[in-house]
Amino acid sequence: MKLASRGVVLFLTLLFLSGALPLRAQEGALENTPPTGVTPEEIITRFAAKEKLFKEAREHYTYRQDIKVQTRDGETVTGEYHEVFDVLYDDKGKHMENVVFAPQSTLEQGGLGLDEGDVQDFRNRLPFVLTTEEVPEYNILYVGQQQEDTLHCYVFDIAPKAIVGKKRYFQGRIWVDDHDFQIVKTYGQAVPEIRDTKKKGKEEHLYPKFTTWREQIDNQYWFPTYTRADDTLHFNTGDIHIREIVKYQDYKRFGSSVKILYEGKEIPKSDQKPDEKKPEQPNPQR
């Protein structure tokens, strides 16, 4: 996020200002106890391998993504960006986005503008994925175990080891289901941010902390279904309260000739069963 109509300075924010993690009634206390029968390193290896499968599988699902970003003064909406698009594939399996709703943005009336980092985050950082290939890019610290609704989870804090070029990263906390060894929830922030630390009136790019919840789709993969951010961005010129709601809906497996494998076996196209379990999500707030 950037202030509407301003100039650029590069400052890499590597320290995650955690504050208090969001606590919901369905969330148990964090227990600082070691895992039983498995090491943290083995958990990381297992969930990263599952994340690789998840990432490959999601590239063969169609779905609708609904993005709403608001600037707010108390409960008054002062600006809004809203876009709804379908993620589709052509007959050759090439990724496409079909915009179905995109009214004129009024975010600038609230003093805010979207930047390229926001566009990347909506598609890649909010539905964060940490695959085997990406694990070496992060410091990953086991912090304990926690109950998320009906799921018992291992909890890890993660942060990028270094910022390389213009690549964007995730910094925060992840919850890994102890049964499927897949990430079911993330809380954190996209980095790097760009701050005008010398207060020379140059452009700043700040991003809110967010939570993403996943649901089990087709009894196989934990796909992101809901992201929420409600944060205050502290620009040098003043604070801006921002709220984001991102929904990922109507997942359907794309009917291509590409085989999707799970634990070495192809998932039948007819295997479209109801979701068996999912962490309860908060009621959407607008």
Q: Kindly, what is the distance between the CA atoms of the first and last residues, rounded to a whole number of angstroms?
A: 19 Å
| Largest sheet properties | 10 strands, antiparallel
Low-confidence stretches: 5-25, 256-262, 269-276
What is the overall pLDDT average?
83
Radius of gyration, in angstroms, nearest whole number: 19 Å
The dominant shape is globular
Order of helices and strands: EHEEEEHEEEEEEEEE
Topology, number of strands: 14
Instruction: Give the strand line-up of the largest sheet.
Output: 4-3-2-12-11-10-9-8-7-6
Task: Figure out the total of helices.
Answer: 2
Helix-strand makeup class: mainly beta
Q: What share of the residues lie within helices?
A: 10-25%
* Domain module tally: 1
Structure report:
The chain has 286 residues and is mostly beta strands. The protein has helices spanning 40-58, 116-125; strands at 2-3, 61-73, 76-89, 95-101, 112-113, 138-148, 151-160, 169-177, 183-191, 210-217, 221-235, 238-253, 261-262, 265-266. Strands 4-3-2-12-11-10-9-8-7-6 form a ten-stranded antiparallel sheet. A two-stranded antiparallel ribbon has the order 1-5.
Helices and strands, with pairings:
Blueprint: E1 2-3, H1 40-58, E2 61-73, E3 76-89, E4 95-101, E5 112-113, H2 116-125, E6 138-148, E7 151-160, E8 169-177, E9 183-191, E10 210-217, E11 221-235, E12 238-253, E13 261-262, E14 265-266
Key descriptive features of the protein:
286 residues, 2 helices, two-stranded antiparallel ribbon, single chain, mainly beta, 42% strand, ten-stranded antiparallel β-sheet
